[in-house]
Amino acid sequence: MTDRTKDWKPATALVHGGTLRSGFGETSEAIFLTQGFVYESGEAAEARFKGDEPGFIYSRYANPTVDMFEKRMCLLEGAEDARATASGMAAVSAALLCGIRAGDHVVAARALFGSCRWVVEKLMPQYGVETTLVDGTRMEEWEQAVRPNTKLFFLESPTNPTLEVVDVAAVSRLANSVGARVVVDNVFATPLFQKPLELGAHIVVYSATKHIDGQGRCLGGVILSDKAWIDENLHDYYRHTGPALSPFNAWTLLKGLETLPLRVRQQTQSAAAIADHLADHPKIGRVIYPGRKDHPQADIVARQMSGGSTLICMELKGGKEAAFAFQNALEIVRISNNLGDAKSLITHPATTTHKNLAEEARIELGINPGTLRLSVGLEDVGDLIDDLDRALDRSA
Known about the structure:
The chain is α/β, with parallel strands linked by helices. It folds into two domains: 3-258, Aspartate Aminotransferase, domain 2, CATH 3.40.640; 260-394, Aspartate Aminotransferase, domain 1 (Alpha-Beta Complex). The chain is built from 17 helices and twelve strands. The protein has helices at 3-6, 10-16, 42-50, 64-77, 88-97, 114-126, 139-145, 168-178, 190-193, 209-213, 227-241, 247-258, 260-279, 298-304, 319-329, 359-364, 381-394, and strands at 81-85, 105-109, 130-134, 150-156, 181-185, 203-207, 221-225, 284-288, 311-316, 334-335, 345-347, 371-375. The strands form two sheets. The chain has a seven-stranded mixed sheet, sandwiched between helices. Strands 8-9-12-11-10 form a five-stranded mixed sheet. β5 (181-185), α9 (190-193) and β6 form a beta-alpha-beta unit. α2 packs antiparallel against α4 (64-77), α5 (88-97) runs parallel beside α6 and α15 (319-329) crosses α17 (381-394). It is globular. The model has no long low-confidence stretch (mean pLDDT 96).
């Protein structure tokens, strides 16, 4: 990476960053669909494995196409190094597990995607790691949860699905004061609208399946941090447990990155307009959207985010029956648990993404029977508003 590439604006870096061309001089990045690599001699193989000679060894460790994706994400995120993974949950799990040991303590915000909570609440304790869940919006709870063996803080911001926003800078200052590291799942903000590393976080994870691909094609994830942490903690875990991203998916994600700013800005503009429209509808009890003045953490949003979100959280007054009738009446917006897609998608978290949480836990998070999560796509915003209005008219 040259000093010149570091000065590129995001739109330029997302088209050209990390490009590695073969001898054919291809315009579009090549897909290196290979499991392994050959060496000119036994001595060359030995040098490669010892690290004395640069180069690729095995695609489970590293691959040229995957390497391009990792380098491009580093330019966008402002990170020193990255490892791409087969899915977002592979990224989360690796980031959380690679640096902790039995007897360590982890503090996490309780507003997490269902699978993330399973890792924190179920998996970690099986291996002797203590965990505590806190209200991520209340700094006093983070402070009170700290123990002498606290090694890691974990949070989403904005959260899934209720779009709470956690003060990343404040949590990071607390972590630094006790010698812990902060992992931020930044998928809802996207790397365009929030920079956790600049706010003091140590590790950032993404489900690249979402906005980075953004077109419903493939799974992927990525972990970004400083090179020392990746070398000392993640490198061996990644190499030996095998959560590697496939070269084909890496190529697909590279294509997604080229249009990421265009897609996300348009989706966010549409989402803001839709949120304002829905907020006044008599059948909707509440709308939560980062960027609106009535957002519960509007002051933090203004400090740490440069844009809103492609996601809207809403609650229908008629509960589950009304929510299902509304979803079923939609013609353009489709029912799906994915998000960040070019197509507008809606899901009922209580019966899908967060169905495995106890009812009390869902209520505590603000996930009620009438709660819906809308991911706004690239369709005409007027058509989307008409579709939503028609479906609301037909709901209970």
